[in-house]
# Entry
Amino acid sequence: MYNLESVVQRLDEQRYRITPSRLAVVTAVLHRRGHFSVDDILSQVPRVGRATVFRTIKLLSEMGILCRVLLEDGSLRYRVSHRQDHHHHLVCVSCASVQELDACIAPDVLGDLARTTGYEIEGHWLEFFGRCAACRNSAA
Ligand SMILES: [Zn+2]
Ligand SMILES: [Zn+2]
Ligand SMILES: [Zn+2]
# Structure
């Protein structure tokens, strides 16, 4: 997992200025459990402008520190990533917990798609929705 120091160090290595506003956003993000929206962070750092919050979250996503999670209703959330490389999520529609899958599960599909369509596939986004084991057990 990430701590403030390691994130600041990586921002510094990539020559991003560490402003007090940016630091406040990074701190707020790292304290979140589960997924969150830009608005969630905005309400945590009311003195920081929306554009700065948005840009910092985007930057952290590009650095692989945050990943984007698409919920079943189509809304986009962010969460602190446990994996830096491409991965997929299992999203529980009952308790909203998110589990990250260890590896891309689609390489064979991608190969087939490229062969049959002539496309050069550059990316994909695949999330799974359902009820997690804990929710299934409590419903039983
Ligand atoms: Zn993730
Ligand atoms: Zn659940
Ligand atoms: Zn994948």
User: Anything to note?
Assistant: The beta strands are 66-70, 76-80, 89-92, 98-100, 127-130. The pocket of zinc ion (ligand 3) is lined by residues 86, 88, 104, 106, 124, 126 (CB under 6 Å).
